[in-house]
Automatic annotation (TrEMBL), chains A, B:
Listed name of the protein: Histidinol dehydrogenase
Role according to the record: Catalyzes the sequential NAD-dependent oxidations of L-histidinol to L-histidinaldehyde and then to L-histidine.
Cofactor(s), names only, from the UniProt record: Zn(2+)
Catalytic reaction(s) noted: L-histidinol + 2 NAD(+) + H2O = L-histidine + 2 NADH + 3 H(+)
Lineage, broadest ranks: Eukaryota, Fungi, Dikarya, Ascomycota, Pezizomycotina
Amino acid sequence: MGTAQVTEALKRPSQKSAEAIMGIVHPIINDVRQNGDKALLSYTHKFEKATSLTSPAIDVSFENIRKFHEAQKEEPLKVETMPGVICSRFSRPIERVGLYVPGGTAVLPSTALMLGVPAMVAGCQKIVLASPPRSDGSITPEIVYVAHKVGAESIVLAGGAQAVAALAYGTESVTKVDKIYGPGNQFVTAGKMYVSNDTNAGVGIDMPAGPSEVLVIADSEANPAFVASDLLSQAEHGVDSQVVLIAIDLDEQQLQAIEDELHKQAMALPRVDIVRGAISHSVTIQVKDIDEAMVISNDYAPEHLILQLKDAEKVVDKVMNAGSVFIGQWTPESVGDYSAGVNHSLPTYGYAKQYSGVNLGSFLKHITSSNLTADGLRNVGSAVMQLAKVEELEAHRRAVEIRLSSMDGK
Amino acid sequence: MGTAQVTEALKRPSQKSAEAIMGIVHPIINDVRQNGDKALLSYTHKFEKATSLTSPAIDVSFENIRKFHEAQKEEPLKVETMPGVICSRFSRPIERVGLYVPGGTAVLPSTALMLGVPAMVAGCQKIVLASPPRSDGSITPEIVYVAHKVGAESIVLAGGAQAVAALAYGTESVTKVDKIYGPGNQFVTAGKMYVSNDTNAGVGIDMPAGPSEVLVIADSEANPAFVASDLLSQAEHGVDSQVVLIAIDLDEQQLQAIEDELHKQAMALPRVDIVRGAISHSVTIQVKDIDEAMVISNDYAPEHLILQLKDAEKVVDKVMNAGSVFIGQWTPESVGDYSAGVNHSLPTYGYAKQYSGVNLGSFLKHITSSNLTADGLRNVGSAVMQLAKVEELEAHRRAVEIRLSSMDGK
């Protein structure tokens, strides 16, 4: 394939018109904003009688995610940039956070873990979950269990744009939050976008969301069955999932072996229809060497990058754009999706070029400070006054001058 | 004042309707996107014959900002969350960044410094500045000098939404960037918001922008002349600037002393009309003690927080929401605006509750990786498989199972 063909093959499926969806979402948000709980038709779930479930699988995952995010804590930074000029940086938790966990037919306790654990580690004071209830009005016990473990204040039993609006503006029973996290369908995404642009809401969001995707780079040492199983893991997420294989210098027989495994394993899956849909617009690109593969991968900026390669660890140095990397034959994507410790809330749709996945920092903000001694102000004062003069901000200049005069007893 | 009165007094001036501005900005962006340079009416400025200016004030500021942002670099993180399960986190520079420097009547080399230096320290490959030219078509030499020093690729001589569109989509002569930074008027802000919501642009922005603001907390030890000079520094930014003073247990005489200084110093300023406008809707709030002051300040979440207090350094522990803090009598805001080393691109309009100011991390993204040994997969595998089962993602479960079977020689 030529460069233009590769670019064409890797074009992500076009997103539905943002304006059409906004037209639906806008009145929903206004309704919740004005009419609160009545519009939300929700109630908050209290934990007292929530669940007696215990899940060792959740406990193991919780602990690994906690450890990895705990290690991301930073000490305050202090730098004396000039004698007597001390600049510092420290972090503070975002006070109130809203975590959206998709529900309905799907059951996603892993999303509750991936958002709730870092919020807990960061020290956020109020953690509010929102998740659409099941048809009987209840919520998956695994999600309630996670909410318990992370110390959430409540679970808002609602989904869609109305849940996002409740978190952004607050209602009688839902706490207004400072930032909203989590994946969701196009209405959730449009709702998050809308409230993050409304200065009256005063709310941030984690990142833009698009369909999930994987790019697997395999060489002749890769086990065809493992490669196929990773491609299928991604494919089962939905028909709009993107599945890309870059094959490094594989011959016909090796490519066929992967293809054969793909069909054999797909036939055994319960979601075979979804898998077939995703596989049908998956892409295989053949390249000569790892450098060629990495140019394509870095340009595509995959959410998940799987390296089934000889010396895979060394190749990480060449990774410039990706959400999360899975190294070597014993690291399927699913370990990162659930339990290894890394976060699974990752940038999609090429946004790995400028966004990080959810991490401890997503629940903190950095604040800086300056503290000058009298000598410090003497040292830096003339630079400040000269620049203030260039910018014609005379009061800025005088705020320094008046202090220097005071030191000199004038 | 009661709580409700304080809240009312500290209400930020309402922003113009986002929809009205979007109506103007939308066609401009589409025009540039479709017609490139022709619509942009711009050209890029090459550096060869740019300037022979040297500015010691810029050199000093550059070096302090460089030092403070250099110190923000992180080592890669590696955590073994379970035996054989190794999770890592490392950072990569955002490849192409666009820095918007307001111009026209204002001359803002400091903005070029505050955005350009961290981009350079982060190792961004392409740094593109955009700034509206002066009436003779040229650009302020100080900005050209900064562009030189940070290794910028070019300066796009254009402003407003059209400059933002050129950076977001690229034109024949302007490099498309991955993220756009910098302050600007309402059209620049609306343009940044628009392109950050367009998945076809694939571009991020630094943060939402609103009018600049300062909150000064002063006690009886504060020098009235210094307090007044800091309030005036903020006021001269524009009539929509927010200027708030919290006075801790000051008597009538002390308050009057600040008031008198304010008027005396204001009369001497060239921008006296702007200053008067801002001062006219400034607010003074009297409180009993520092705790009461900090509740108000943290709720307001000021862009700039100035502590003119006894033991000001200790009070920093109580700061939960603020862009940047200025500690003690020898630290006027203007040192941070220009030369101390801290960044002056800070969250306004209460967004300090969830956003950090521009820092080194604004020019990087974090990527995680997992690397499991065979034993690692054995250790974590059952948790992964159990959660995949709960979520009914069978291919995820099998991606682990097929590997465990292979280890056991099945």
